[in-house]
């Protein structure tokens, strides 16, 4: 078999050739499952496993578990489960092959691929998902932007970044800052050379068709470019800040043309009808938090995020050591963005400019944070300052002092309202109308009382009305109490088990024993008790497991990893989810007791089946029109079942006494 090497750049147009099973196994073995999951879940050690809040459904108590040894995950709440490749597919919306490529890239592992003919290679490329193609395209574009920043054509952008904004090379590298030059077709030609199609280039917002119909042109030109990362590190779009390259931009058709100062990729919705609806929105500005990918580890360790308004603010703060700084994309802080941050912390420090625009931003942001379950504090910068200018002129120590002295978020919100609305009766009424429902919605009575006292004091200071506290209390008492924050809402995963019957505890126990101790599978098969398992899905799964073990006999030991590999192929349902749950747990039975436990469980299931058979005979005997011979036959069969039950229960009792002695 001939092979060829792929490289990171091969992902731009999809690596050619199938990935051998040995390569997939190597990638799985080298990947740290806990490190992989912690990119999107805040895991804490729980005995020999790890647990955290499930990324696939909303919950307040952690029910998501990871087995680092077997490299499995399972959620006891929603039933999601699988191996590390399954986790990549579930969280990133990639195909199986794309997930293996992603893991290999993280490891720096060069995948060996089987050589394919042209037709096979073309079909393989066509099988790549739309999402995978766009992610590859974004990586390809980012490589060119980075190259251009360091080249002669990107010098104006580099000077703007390093001289005008003071960004160091380390910060530039940390955020992947690049440049779009002044040429009209550089990016389009680059992407097409790597096999990307015109509609894909237009879809991601990097190119547009000329009005004349003669080809495409680059949409980003003469700009300092920064990639837009998801929290998982995927590039899903780009933002660009215009920089003067000294090129005449006006034309005869549009002599007054002036480029926009800031430009971002458009929202991108995938067209593939087969894509999971959770990944249908490839890029949505209101769902993305700039800098979260770079900041999330510091956020985890410091237990808070610093939220500012601008992307340059984020990069400057990181450069000065505040590496938990992030900024919402768009003009307003949305609940989706709050929920992204809440995956890593429940506390934020909101930092807004000290002007009227900053106060308006605060008034909008605080209720959004509280609705999403975020709390924290609120920093007001001096008039005319933004985080970038403040930290450069005043230094990191002064900014740190502002954070430490910052009032609670609610107090800052009230201060901003009071400062913004004026001193008229109408203004005070507006303040009550805006802040009242927010105060009434606070579930914690202590927090609510502190906020109420602060608001009463502020209004008292402005009005001199000594009865303001009474007025405020009466107004709040008339407002309905809200249920409080609902927590993060995650798109619901399809549940194929809703119409399946539950698997009873006895049958669950049987599945646990043979999954933990697969060397007992021959004993299970010899007993034929699988035929007496009531749950259809589990009965079929256990029969398939026994057959799978027979097929693998002599090739290699049929152990825990072999059961894991088998379980991955089960159709989603209660049986598969049960096995995922079992495998992520540690055995509850010692290995030297496993055979005895299996015997006991098999006996119980067999007795249950015998009792059910006797019940059927009793119902049949009650029917009218039976002959004497038929009644005698039913009676003898019933006696036989009773004797068999008695024999099994006697043997079980003797066995139990023997074990206890």
State the main characteristics.
single chain, 661 residues, alpha+beta, DNA Primase, Chain A, DNA primase DNAg catalytic core, N-terminal domain, Dna Topoisomerase Vi A Subunit, Chain: A, domain 2, 4 domains, five-stranded antiparallel beta sheet, five-stranded mixed beta sheet, 20 strands, disordered N terminus, disordered C terminus
Summarize it.
The chain is of the alpha+beta class and 661 residues long.
Structural class: alpha+beta
Average predicted local confidence, pLDDT = 82
Strand tally:
20
Count of discrete structural domains: 4
Name given to the CATH architecture of the largest domain = 3-Layer(aba) Sandwich
What gyration radius follows from the Cα positions, in whole Å? 32 Å
CATH class of the largest domain: Alpha Beta
CATH topology of the largest domain: Dna Topoisomerase Vi A Subunit, Chain: A, domain 2
Largest sheet, described in full?
5 strands, antiparallel
Strand order of the largest sheet: 2-3-4-5-6
Helix-residue proportion? 40-55%
| Shape category | globular
Task: Give the DSSP E fraction (strand runs of 2 or more residues).
Answer: 5-15%
Q: Your description of this structure?
A:
By secondary structure, this protein is an alpha+beta fold. It folds into 4 domains: 3-126, Zinc finger, CHC2-typedomain (DNA Primase, Chain A), CATH 3.90.580.10; 130-281, DNA primase DNAg catalytic core, N-terminal domain; 286-478, Dna Topoisomerase Vi A Subunit, Chain: A, domain 2; 505-660, DNAb Helicase, Chain A, CATH 1.10.860. The longest helix is centred in the last third of the chain and has 33 residues, at 628-660. The protein is globular, with a radius of gyration of 32 Å.
């Amino acid at each position: 078999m001939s092979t060829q090497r792929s490289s990171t750049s091969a992902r731009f147009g999809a690596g050619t050739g199938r990935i051998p099973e040995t390569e997939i196994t190597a990638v799985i073995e080298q990947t740290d499952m806990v490190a992989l999951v912690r990119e999107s879940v805040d895991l804490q050690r729980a005995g020999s496993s790890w647990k955290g809040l499930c990324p696939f459904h909303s919950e307040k108590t952690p029910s998501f578990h990871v087995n680092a040894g077997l490299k499995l995950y399972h959620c006891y709440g929603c039933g999601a489960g699988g191996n590390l490749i399954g986790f990549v597919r579930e969280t990133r919306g990639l195909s199986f092959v794309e997930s293996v490529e992603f893991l290999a890239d993280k490891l720096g592992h060069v995948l060996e691929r089987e050589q394919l003919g042209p037709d096979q290679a073309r079909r393989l490329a066509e099988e790549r998902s739309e999402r995978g193609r766009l992610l590859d395209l974004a990586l390809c574009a980012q490589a060119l932007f980075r190259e251009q920043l360091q080249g002669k054509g990107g010098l104006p952008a580099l000077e703007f970044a390093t001289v005008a904004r003071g960004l160091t090379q380390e910060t530039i590298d940390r955020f992947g800052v690049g440049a779009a030059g002044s040429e009209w077709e550089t990016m389009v030609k680059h992407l097409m050379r790597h096999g990307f199609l015109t509609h894909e280039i237009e879809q991601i917002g990097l190119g547009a068709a000329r009005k004349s119909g003669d080809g495409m042109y680059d949409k980003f030109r003469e700009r300092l470019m920064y990639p837009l990362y998801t929290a998982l590190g995927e590039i899903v779009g780009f933002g660009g800040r215009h920089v003067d390259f000294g090129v005449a931009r006006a034309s005869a058709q549009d002599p007054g043309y002036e480029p926009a100062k800031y430009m971002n990729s458009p929202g991108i919705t995938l067209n593939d009808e087969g894509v999971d609806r959770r990944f249908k929105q490839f890029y949505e500005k209101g769902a993305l938090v700039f800098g979260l990918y770079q900041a999330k580890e510091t956020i985890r360790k410091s237990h808070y995020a610093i939220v500012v308004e601008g992307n340059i603010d984020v990069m400057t703060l990181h450069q000065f050591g505040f590496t938990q700084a992030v900024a919402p994309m768009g003009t307003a802080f949305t609940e989706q963005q709050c929920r992204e941050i809440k995956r890593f912390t429940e506390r934020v420090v909101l930092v807004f400019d000290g002007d009227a625009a900053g106060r308006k931003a605060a008034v909008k942001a605080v209720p959004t944070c509280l609705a999403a379950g975020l709390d924290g504090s609120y920093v007001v910068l001096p008039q005319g300052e933004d985080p970038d200018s403040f930290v450069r002129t005043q230094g990191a120590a002064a900014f740190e002092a502002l954070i430490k002295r910052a009032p609670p978020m609610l107090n800052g919100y009230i201060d901003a309202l009071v400062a913004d609305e004026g001193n008229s009766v109408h203004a005070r009424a507006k303040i009550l109308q805006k802040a009242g429902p927010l105060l009434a919605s606070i579930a914690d009575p202590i927090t609510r009382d502190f906020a109420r006292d602060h608001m009463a004091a502020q209004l008292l200071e402005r009005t001199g009305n000594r009865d303001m506290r009474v007025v405020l209390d009466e107004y709040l008492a008339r407002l309905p109490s809200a249920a409080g924050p609902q927590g993060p809402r995650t798109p619901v995963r399809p549940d194929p088990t809703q119409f399946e019957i539950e698997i009873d505890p006895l049958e669950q126990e049987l599945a646990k024993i043979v999954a933990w101790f697969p060397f007992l599978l021959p004993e299970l098969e010899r007993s034929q008790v699988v035929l007496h398992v009531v749950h259809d899905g589990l009965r079929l799964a256990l029969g398939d497991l026994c057959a799978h073990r027979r097929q693998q006999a002599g090739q290699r030991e049929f152990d825990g990893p072999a059961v894991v590999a088998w379980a991955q192929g089960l159709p989603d349902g209660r049986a598969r989810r049960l096995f995922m749950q079992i495998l992520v747990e540690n055995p509850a039975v010692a290995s030297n007791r496993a055979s005895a436990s299996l015997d006991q469980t098999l006996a119980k299931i067999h007795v249950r089946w015998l009792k059910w058979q006797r019940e059927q005979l009793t119902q049949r005997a009650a029917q009218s029109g039976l002959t004497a011979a038929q009644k005698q036959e039913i009676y003898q069969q019933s006696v036989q079942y009773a004797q068999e039950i008695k024999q099994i229960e006697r043997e079980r009792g003797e066995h139990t006494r023997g074990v206890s002695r």
